[in-house]
Amino acid sequence: MVGKIKGTGSYRPVQVWDNDKLSHMMETSDEWIRGRTGIGQRHIASQGETVAYMAARAAGEALRDAEVRPEEIDLILVSTMSSERIMPCAACEVQKLIGATGATCFDLNSACTGFLLALNTAQAYLGQHIYKRALVIGAEVLSNLTNWQDRSTCVLFGDGAGAVVLEAEEDAVYIQATHSIGKGGDALTCTSRNQPEFVEKGTNLSATYMQMDGKEVFKFAVSKVPEVIFEVLEKAGKTKEEIRFYMLHQANQRIVSSVAKHMKEPLEKYPMNIERLGNTSSASIPLLLDEWKKRGKLNPGDWIVLSGFGGGLTYGASLMRW
Question: Which pLDDT value is given to residue 269?
Fold first, then answer.
């Protein structure tokens, strides 16, 4: 027994920054950003649009879609690397906001692979008959961790939240594979401002924002993502031709296109919304799932692969039947 997705939901901050706005903040242009990333705009959280607030809004939408009451949820997992509060965790704040009084709650942090690992964690609980229904959320306010003067990173990121409701079913299918490469972790970092060297006033805080070696991250993603997707297909005894969609973390349009090329699969099987949302880290996969569901693109029985990759370095893939 594993969990089947019964409902999806999402939240996007009201404020939108397009590439032209960024061109007035630093030396860049719409052409430069689109050519390297495929991104045209991103949503940026305003005051009050915290990780917990956005996660709760996405969760409420997912619950309504699943026709499940908040008090029927047994487990709430929030994947985030950008929560404004260390304690209480974002999942407990979501519980309070939506009234899921019977749920056990905790957060996970695995950067852009986070939602996938949170989904795997929820599946483990459901598979062991510990819980019956779980709410899994990816939510990020990356604008708080972004150096808006560093055009090599700031043009990439956006804010948002996505959520799914899982319910344990006997005939559901979920097969996963995940890996980590800790020795490659310096390719993508973000350091806490609570470290002693950053506490004094006037200290250069640049290291406390996201830092990325773009070339290394690109090489990592385009080599390891196809590898882990084929690994999970082999585990399931499935061929790539049987897959309806590959729902990848929306890091960069060039990465997604390169993965499709490496796998020798048509790009049409790789949905993308990065042009409108940017890289939303752990929120990107559930945001994409919710969008495709609302557009009527997902049909019962479809085989779908989810794949996340990012800081750690971490990466993985999961196969499910919709």
Answer: 98
Long-range contacts of 269-274 (CB under 8 A, 24+ apart): 269/243, 269/244, 269/245, 270/245, 270/246, 271/245, 271/247, 271/297, 272/38, 274/37, 274/38, 274/39, 274/250
Residue labelled with tokens 């559901």: 172
Domain holding 26, by residue range, is 2-172
Sign of CA dihedral 242, 244, 246, 247: negative
154 counts as catalytic = no
Task: Select which of 19, 120, 252, 279 is catalytic.
Answer: 279
- The active-site residue out of 112, 120, 154, 252 is 112
Question: What pLDDT score was predicted for residue 30?
Answer: 95
Higher pLDDT, 240 or 200: 240
What's the pTM value of the predicted model, to 2 decimals? 0.95
Per the residue annotation, which of 43, 89, 249, 252 is the catalytic one?
249
pLDDT of 32 above 80: yes
Last residue of some domain: 116, 141, 172? 172
Residue 279 falls in the annotated catalytic set: yes
Residue 283, domain CATH: 3.40.47.10
The DSSP 8-state label assigned to residue 108 in this structure reads E
* Token code pair at residue 322: 């919709």
